[in-house]
Amino acid sequence: MAKCDEGYRCEVCGSDVEVVTESDLYLRFVLGEVPLELLHRLPERHLRCNPALAQYIVDPTFAPVACEGPFSKTEMAPEFVAAEESRVSRGYRRLLAIPTMGLAVPEYPLSVTPDGDVL
User: Fold this and answer.
1) Domain residues of the chain, as ranges?
2) Sheet strands (E) in the chain
3) Were both Cys, which of 11, 15, 52, 115 would link to 43 (CB 3.0–4.6 Å)?
């Protein structure tokens, strides 16, 4: 079986990230934060193992995650939090849909404007 079909080991908890819908790396790729050419080289984590990002997922299928410390959304400006919740939640919904969309990996990311806004 190819490495990409086996899943990747989470650098935080050590367990396999078995499906794309649990992948912090692929969510960041969908959001345009990770370039395609680095997908196979960057460390993987479960979404829940990266609370700094996961705290911004607002979706009924995802139990809320709290991030402690200076990166907690409770420490951020409300406007920033609202924008991040919208952006990351939209990416998460795309991540959930990927297994049924029949897309090639380069087609996973959401559209991003030149200003960095996610469409």
Assistant:
1) 3-107
2) 8-9, 16-17
3) 11
pTM, full prediction: 0.86
CB atoms within 10 A of CB 105: 13
> Tens digit of pLDDT for each residue in 59-88?
999 999 999 999 999 999 999 999 999 999
Give residue for tokens 């196979």.
40
pLDDT tens string 26-54: 999 999 999 999 998 999 999 999 999 99
Q: Look at the alpha carbons of 111, 112, 113, 114 in this order and tell me if their dihedral is positive or negative.
A: negative
Instruction: Write the DSSP symbol of residue 75.
Output: G
Question: In the structure encoding, which two tokens stand for residue 16, read together?
Answer: 């396999």
Q: Would residue 50 be called left, alpha or beta, if left means φ above 0 and alpha means ψ between -120 and 50 degrees?
A: beta
Residues 6+ apart with CB under 8 A from 32: 109, 110, 112, 116, 118
